[in-house]
Each structure stands twice: as C-alpha cells, then as structure tokens.
Amino acid sequence: MNSKSHRSWSQLEPWYPVIMVIGFLFLWEVLSRAGLISNLFFPPPSTIIQTLFQMIGEGEIWIHLLATLQRLVLGVLLGGLSGLLLGLAMGWSSRLRTVVDPIIAAIHPIPKLAIFPLIMILFGIGEASKVVAIAIACFFPMLINSMAGVRSLNPVYFEVSRNYGANKWKTFTRIVFPGSLPMILTGARLAVNMAMVIAIAVELLAAQEGLGVIIWFSWQTMRIEDLYASLIVIAALGIGLTFLLQYLSRRLVPWYSDHTKNQG
After folding, report:
1. pLDDT of 1 over the 50 cut
2. Which residue of 44, 61, 83, 226 pairs with 143 in a disulfide if CB–CB is 3.0 to 4.6 A?
3. Whole-prediction pTM value?
C-alpha cells in the first residue's frame, strides 16, 4: 500500500503547480464572491477572464501587445547583439577586458529607469528612446554572460587550435562561440526578462500604446479587471518567451541540456 501510494504521489508531482494555482484561484473566487475581500481591488477571477476575452474579442489588447512586442524585439536585437559581440571580445582579449571592464562595472549598477529622462533628452520622446532603454537593459546581461562563457573555456582548447595552425576566425567559430553558447543562452534569458520589465516600465512612464499603458490607464480609471487582464497577457508573453529560449537551448546545445538533466 505504501509503495502504491508513493507511486501515485510521484505521478501527481508534475501537477502540483497546476493544482496549487487552481486552488488559489478557487479560494480567491469564493472570498471575492462572499465579500470577504474587496471586489474593487480583487475582483473574482471569472470576471477577470471574462474581461480578458472581451478585450481579445474587441481587438484592443492586440494593438497594445504588438506595440510592446515591437519595442521588445528591437531592443533585444540592438542591446543583445551588442552585448554578445562585446562580451565575446572581452572574454577573448585580456587587453580589451582591462580597458572596458572598469567602465562596465561603473555603469552597470545604475538603475536603467533612472537614466530614462537622459535617454529621452538624447533620443527624443518617440519610439527611439524606449527602444534604447530596453536595449541598455539587455546589453549588460548578455555582455557579462558572454564574457563569462569565454573565460570558462579550458585553455587547452586554444593551445590545440594554435598547434593545428587555426586562424582567429576558425578559433572563434569552432571553439569560442560554440563553447560559450550555454552561457550566452543563459544571458539571453536574463536579457529578455529584463527587457520585459523595462519595456512595461517605460510604457508606464511615456507611451501611447503598449501593455504598460493599459496598466496605467486601468489604475487611473479604477478598471481593475483590465489591469489584471493585462497582467495575465504579460505573464503569458513571458512564459512563451521562456519556452522559446528553452527550446533553442535544447536545439543548439543538447549536450549541455542533457548534462543539467543528469545532474538534476
């Protein structure tokens, strides 16, 4: 009996998060319907889902979602690629790292939203300033992880490449980039998460369209159902991007994915 019950519990283990979420939503629904919590700030989940479907049907949410996605993609490409290239170069070149690393150490801790007014002065109040703010947020995670990926490579690999007469391009394409891919993909995941945070934040501050705009407008007009509905869309977007990066990780570095599974 004990072994059977243990097997049944182990089979249910992957469903624990789903069960917990359903239980939390059910409790929220009951408490809100019974008036034990404020309906104004905690409307029933059923009302929130109904509002979300209404926003989807009316097409309102798509306009704001596309605006956020556009800024997100442009910012990740601009900041992520810049951070990737500079990080690989700094990891490979000790001279470049000596010169640039103190500058990175000084700028990185500065809150990105704190310099957003300066970015708006330099790039205007249009889309450029928002994309640049997102790009800056992506830049540092990609740079740091890419540099760490190169520096974690075994020096023997470089010695072997020199012994076989490999030029710098072959060393980069055969050793530096493939060997750094696990850390690069980790940096990409961190960069995308940071980009999401900054994208919503800059939309709260200065935008006409975007998921952050819905949040701010919903709060100003006390349409709390719209606020929660937009948060669900943001969460779904984050989950989708995470699964996409995990899929890319399994495809591009399957040996690393298998290694981490075996460790787990």
Report:
1. no
2. 83
3. 0.81
